[in-house]
Model the fold of this input.
Amino acid sequence: MKKLSVLFAVVVMVVSVSMAKAQKLATVDLMGVLNAMPEKKKADTDIKTFLDAKQAEIKKKADAGQAKLKQYTEEAPKKTADENKARETELQKLQEEIAQMQDKAQKDLQAKQDVAFGPIEKKLNDAIEKVAKANGYEFIMDANSAALVYKSGADATAAVKKELGIN
Done:
């Protein structure tokens, strides 16, 4: 019985190794390729500019709110309870406006990223698919993936960059 188990284990190992050898594997440095693409560089610059503008707008509103808060705090002892209550309501409304601006900016940023990076991702995926078919690769894995434990397949990074016309 023990010999049968050992024989079965050896057969499974031989079949597994021969199946693995039959598959043509390659890796690609996705981040390296993406960062080399001019479209990605332009999209990154556009998004940073957009984000900086939104942050400046929110900061301006927040600074104005801080100035008002300081002014109202200093003047509070000299004002009536009704005036202070109205000022408190105004400050709460201003805080809500700032929070809404931040939420809207986050949503706008996500939408801008989706629009900017969608075509880039499609172009990269199309290039990877074309390289895989041209070179007979059955699998192309991201060389930077944490799930990748062993890598001995060919590296398709140069071929994908060539397909995209980048160095």
The chain has one domain: 28-164. The first strand starts at residue 25 and ends at 28. Residues 147-151 have pLDDT under 50 and may be disordered.
